[in-house]
Amino acid sequence: MQNSIQIILYNDSQHRDKTIHLWKQVFAYDTAHNEPHLVLDRKLALQDDLLFLAVDGEAVLGTIMAGYDGHRGWLYSVAVYHLHRNQGIGSKLVKYAENQLVKLGCLKINLQIMEGNESVAAFYETLGYCIEKRVSMGKRVII
Questions:
Q1: Which of 26, 28, 55, 101 has the highest CB neighbour count under 10 A?
Q2: Alpha carbons 21 and 43: distance in angstroms, whole number
Q3: What is the signed CA dihedral for 50, 138, 24, 63, rounded to 10 degrees?
Q4: CATH number assigned to the domain covering 2-126
Q5: How far is it, in rounded angstroms, from Cα 128 to Cα 133?
């Protein structure tokens, strides 16, 4: 199956339900601002073409969302169905998103790992990422 996997740009009319299903299976989000419908709507409103899927025919096997602010790039929502892990799909998604960010002029790419999912750091280290001494802070803005 690995040879037939392609990385493509997300198309809302074709991929929304499959992407939401994947995210609900993979991510244990418990906050309203991470609800998949909302995340997709907000990403699509930016029209930045930085949401990609790993597909095999019509099947969505994985996702990656990237962001770029002109200074740094970010990777988000890296997800692969459990059944399809350890087949190179996640690596392929990350490398594809990295290439798209570099084409935009990005010189540094960051990502964050949720508490409780620290074991995924080993995966990112195989792709050249390293743990940096930083304090990550956030502020939820109620709209």
A1: 101
A2: 17
A3: 20
A4: 3.40.630.30
A5: 16
Return the closest-CA partner of residue 50 out of 40, 60, 36.
40
β-pairing verdict for 51-56 and 73-80: unpaired
Per-domain residue ranges of the chain: 2-126
Q: Single out the residue of 24, 96, 104 nearest to residue 65, CA to CA.
A: 96
Crossing angle (nearest 10°) for helices 12-26 and 36-46: 140
| Sequential DSSP letters for 70-121 | SS-EEEEEEEE-GGGTTSSHHHHHHHHHHHHHHHTT---EEE---TT-GGGH
On the question of pLDDT at 2 being above 60, the answer is: no
pTM confidence score: 0.91
Count of Cβ atoms closer than 10 Å to residue 99 Cβ? 10
